[in-house]
Amino acid sequence: MTIRTAAPEDTKAPPALLLMAGIVLVAANLRAALTGVGPLLPEIERSTGLSGIWSGLLGALPLLTFAATSPFVGRTAHRFGSARVLGNSLLILATGLLVRSLPGVFFLFAGTFVVAAAIAYGNVLLPAVIKSSVPESRIGQVTAGYVTAMGLVAALSSGISVPMAAYLPGAWRTALGCWIVLAALAFVVWLPQYRRGRRTESAAPAAREPIPWRSGLAWQVSVFMGLQSLAFYTIIAWLPSILHDRGVGAASAGWQLFLFQIAGLVSSIVLPFLTRRWRDQRIIAATASLLAALGFALLILAPGLAVVSCVLIGLGGGACLVLALSFQSQRAANPAQAAALAAMAQSVGYLVAAIGPLLLGALHDGTAGWRIPLLLLVALALVQAAVGSRAGRDTRLSTRVDPI
């Protein structure tokens, strides 16, 4: 894993507000293109003839792409510069969104692959950017800020996708393709960093840091990342279908998915204030995971209380997302190590997460119901609580192998 860092002579940093605006807008593009798919899935299935397994594969494809792409991000950033790579990824994202909106199942899957590959670069590079530009004491707050932007736009995408498909020409294809506008806006705001990167990063010395495959702490961070991502993307892919099978209309199911994400936003905003002085985050990681487990259990035991379940899962999941991303910066000793840890956490993590949508689709088809899939999510949330109690330790990666 290699990544370029600024040379000492290039001391003049870009204006902080402009840099933060760019980070926020890049973050806003990291989920919106994916979270609008779930509410539209029943309509996509009707118009394309996709089975439950193929729909699960559509939900798993972005995560498999994240897992396959993440290890190569550092190498690409080292060669071309992280600012330029981020800018180019926004252009590739816009291209993928256009391809995905074209008629035909092939373009649906091909566009989804391109969109996910572009998003993977932002996922990996943002923790390294934060590590290199933000004081250690503020990493949690800044991470929460970009998670808030990411989650807010993602929630909006879930809520408006069905109404947009109903009123726009092109139906669901147009609803999924309209996020090109957000990608273009982010590129325009990021352009000053892109241009600065061309001048400064070509002369910068390379800091080399291998991916920490032999570190127990890195594996704990990676598995925690994977389990919380599995829960999130499974809910994004299947919650509207779960509710739809219980007689809830498509638009109403979309808004309940919106509520789930709003609850996640609330916890991601509040969490940094609660943990500002807590360098050890074991208790909060375990507690947030148990809260999500309770929400999944409630979906089984009292499906009529789905709104409460959405809130509980959202509160727990939002906190776990902030923690998972913060761990990738806080458990690293330097920006290059943060990039290496982020690459590992997101490669392993999204590979774990990819199992969720596909497995739940297969379990639903095989059992003709949602009870077994939801029981599995409860069990995995309990495992996540145990892993989080280790990943949340106040410690750093080192050059030696960290004990499990």
UniProtKB/TrEMBL annotation:
The chain crosses the membrane at residues 48-69, 81-99, 105-130, 142-165, 171-191, 217-241, 253-274, 283-300, 306-327, 339-362, 368-387. Keywords: Membrane, Transmembrane, Transmembrane helix. Residues 17-396 form the Major facilitator superfamily (MFS) profile domain. SUPFAM superfamilies: MFS general substrate transporter. It is a multi-pass membrane protein. It is found in: Cell membrane. One of its GO terms (cellular component) is plasma membrane. Pfam families: MFS_1 (PF07690). CDD domains: MFS_NIMT_CynX_like. This is MFS transporter.
